Amino acid sequence: MSSHAEEPTRRDFLTIAGSAFAAVGGAMALWPFIAQMNPDASTQALASVEVDLTPVKEGQAITVMWRGKPVFIRNRTPEEIQKAVATPVNDLPDPEPDNARVKKGHENWLVLVGICTHLGCIPKGQSLNDVKGDYDGWFCPCHGSHYDTSGRIRKGPAPRNLEVPTYEFVSDTKIRIG
Amino acid sequence: MTTHQSTYEPKSSAEKWLDERLPIMRMMHAQFVDYPTPRNLNYLWTFGGILTVVLGLQILTGVVLAMHYIPSATEAFDSVERIRRDVNYGWLIRNLHAVGASMFFLAVYVHLFRGLYYGSYKAPREVLWIIGVIIYLVMMATAFLGYTLPWGQMSFWGATVITNFFSAIPLVGESIVQWLWGGYAVSGVTLNRFYSLHYLLPFVLAGLVVLHIWALHVAGQNNPTGIEPQTKSETVPMSPYAVAKDFVGMAVFAILFAWFVFFVPDYLGHADNYNQANPLVTPPHIVPEWYFLPFYAILRAIPSKLGGVVAMFGAIAILAFIPWLDTSRVRSTKYRPLYRWFFWLFVFTCLALGYLGSKPAEGTYVTWARVFTFYYFAHFLIVMPIIGVIETPSKMPRSISEAVLGKKGNGVSAVSPASATAAAEKR
Fold this sequence. Notes:
The complex is a heterodimer of chains A (178) and B (427). Chain A has helices at 10-35, 41-45, 78-86, and strands at residues 49-52, 61-66, 69-75, 109-113, 136-140, 145-148, 153-155, 167-171, 174-177.
């Protein structure tokens, strides 16, 4: 042992360098055990679906599955569109104009991931006799979030609007989600 | 207590042979046979033993259920039904396991409130208390994971709601949730990993229980007076005294347990969980199991997603800080006339939050949930520190002997001076 305690020795250096090396190595060895829990290749492969919109009449809605999640597709009535457009954007908890949530030229089609942004329940409002909430859109029964006819959060604990998935119109009556 | 010497004497040559190589019998004898326990422990102190037995029973029934259960999204639901209907005694073992979870929490709540009332968290038992809080947290995780396994509607949507708590974390929340799910929603992949972890955690619990008992046997047990034993006469050997009392407590507890198992096995569950999981339909009213309801009420009382989740986890985390939040010099609430009122108010608050958690989150239910959530935190952050300082404790006995024998009127003065000297010698 060195008599000068405050003077770093070769052994101190080796201890620190060795521990640091072991720590980095340990963290790297741990990574596969953490990463294995992420979505696997087969899950990621189910990335896109095509949906034919012809059977959906005005005022109706359908639900399709995409990546294990329900996607709401609603053919909105002119009144519903009018209501969504007329809402002052600044009053909203998550301000977003209606035209940013639909495709130009297809304003009647609203496509949303049907998962409440609060804690992941499926909001009600898809079938005709469902409770649609105070804003005629969707209502989440779990913790009472109300969404409007543009799928925007209006009232309740949910922090964000219903998510609009990436999608495009392949033809006038067909969309591809994902 | 730490200085306690075992009176173990190996009787046979085989015992002597083992004792020289691994003195495990000596250790067990010292810790569980002639271990000194305060002579005035009441029946609330039997719940530690009850909890150990319930954990053992959960592991036993769980291992048996794992022999028949299939952790797959398509087969899990049916395999649980097969256990209930076709497997020999499957109905009994499955009911014991499902009711056992509720009984585990019932016993842990009695145990926890007993610790709160008699100040069992105060020095030198802080580490003991904190290990207890960790056990409680791991228990909650285990119960949640287990509830997912039958793959009914409540299983599925409970799992969805609870894993979504983590999506409240800014920036990385979404990635964490997908990491937990192994997909973009709760699925069979999620079920498999939950099953694996549900099998693992009880053994973690068992390890934590060993640490909990170790910490308990270093500090010694608290007792209803909150005064440390000062003489040998104030303690009795654990066996047969405390052990016999534990058995009485267990027998009474077992009657309640058996009543649920044999007569109303589904009373504590939800009818919705006998519908198979459907990712497209959320049940109209999602409620967790009864033992999570107070925390669920706190979650919903806060009108912000992140805030609600933080408050809910905070409600559990705050328990770990109680040893330092309580400023009183007196341990037992028996001698705290002012704090006693607040203690019972806190008990009422927890029950009220439990009731509110079972109700839909609307109207006056939310208002009341906010009032009680406020008191839940105020009890620890405001009441405990302040009352400890301003309160004048009632007159305390000088020792356990005085507390026990004082009731009979005589013999107090004869015991006290002796115990006082003994206490002085010990220091």
